[in-house]
Amino acid sequence: MKGLTSIGRCCRRLVILAVTTFLLACGDNPQLSPLYDGDRILAFGDSLTYGTGVERQYSYPSVLAELTGLEVINMGVPGEESTAGLLRLQQVLAEDNPQLVILCHGGNDFLRKRSRETLAENLIKMIEIIRTSGAQVVLLGVPRPGLFLSSENLYGEIAEQMQVPIELKIVPQLLSDNSMKSDPVHFNRQGYAAMANAVFELLVAQGAITETL
Question: What pTM, to 2 d.p., does this model score?
């Protein structure tokens, strides 16, 4: 574990340097406040957050903890739809008191053909609840099942409406690559590691993770 931590810290420095250089060149402005030692990240979602298909230490929240050096709480519930997630969110926030929440929900709504409008309403309510708790929030886009996968448009629409940083590409990319999956809808170790790295890069790009963390 010590070696893994060292590798994670090295990767973190390299990513921070690369992303910071890119942002300075592009003139983009970070949207998140920096996280500090002792701050907590809550990963909230369904089986993709839980890490179905791998041992717990290879889930994306566990890998993200190595990359950030922060505690990342895994609150993924396999099979959960957004309506159930909305119902449990407030209690989870009260118990864990995170400074930032990574919200990845909706896959089971699509698989079970639930209402697009209800999913959008649930995600917006979750974002509002998270912000009311005092935490920051980032959103991960999820695709509908299909041959050509991309995040459902509602995620980008919600991110723009609510001014939430979002990662739209990683989940569709991984679901399109059988070498990254343990079954048709879940990732393997390499897939969850790629997911964690994409989230990490988003947090760096938006200013939540800094070199001095």
Answer: 0.86
